[in-house]
Amino acid sequence: MVVHMHYTLKNTEGEVLDSSENGGEPMAYLHGAQNIIEGLEDELEGLGVGDTFDVVIPAAKAYGIVQKRLINEIPRDRFPEDAKVEIGARFILDRQGTPAQVKVTAIDGDQVTIDANHDLAGQDLHFAGSIVSVREGTPEELSHGHPHGPGGHHH
Fold this sequence. Notes:
The chain is mainly beta. It has 2 helices and 9 strands.
């Protein structure tokens, strides 16, 4: 099923991290296709048009716990020569033949600490919102694994 929903995402401190409210388009996802985090999809199971939700998703069912193995110190010379290496900068690096997005979290001389964890890893997340519409996915959406059209994926 393709679900369109309005939502507001907050961290445990109550800071709004993302929202489709206040004139934004509802978010669309294909239920059962892992388009959204596991814990939220579990909580939305069985909801219909007009239903509301207000749930806290533990880190393990959101973006996971912080994995220390994804935090590494590497020499500055592993970055391209012209790269602007500063705290908060993001890069795509080769991790054993697989590209991985990393964020620079510290710099100590020629050593750069990079973190490949998702920015929301280790955080419990609070979602509140409402279901706007629910419809069957088209054969094309089902084969692609995501919704198409307004609020969904556009090719």
